[in-house]
Amino acid sequence: MSFAADQQFFSRLASASDSFAGSLPSTLARLAQLGAELDPAAPALAANELQAMLHTVAGSAVTFGYRGLGQHARALEQRLRVLMTFDAVAHSDWAIWLGELGQFVEAGRHDPRSLG
């Protein structure tokens, strides 16, 4: 037995999932752009937007069946938060994090459902 409310819920969920999948290429492009713009000497502006975007991707990805993508986004977000808590972070630490962000973006562009 199926209820109209269930059908509406699953219809909205499918629509939201399609919307997430459709916006993923532009989201990944924006993450890459912010990574390229991040200045290790003054990271706050780009880092704040990166953190917010990674947080959103982490939650949405898991919800819509992109578990690995979501877990990777959450790990990047958490490491970014740690970096942002310090007054000074070595350029090499930023370079490592930015390299991981770049790998995440490329893997997400290639096959976001298999990212792990």
Automatic annotation (TrEMBL):
Keyword hit for Transferase: no
Keywords: Two-component regulatory system
Pfam families the UniProt entry points to: Hpt
InterPro entries: HPT_dom_sf (IPR036641), Sig_transdc_His_kin_Hpt_dom (IPR008207)
Lipid metabolism recorded as keyword: no
Residue ranges annotated for the HPt domain, each copy included: 28-80
SUPFAM superfamilies: Histidine-containing phosphotransfer domain, HPT domain
Full protein name: Hpt domain-containing protein
Protein source organism: Massilia agri
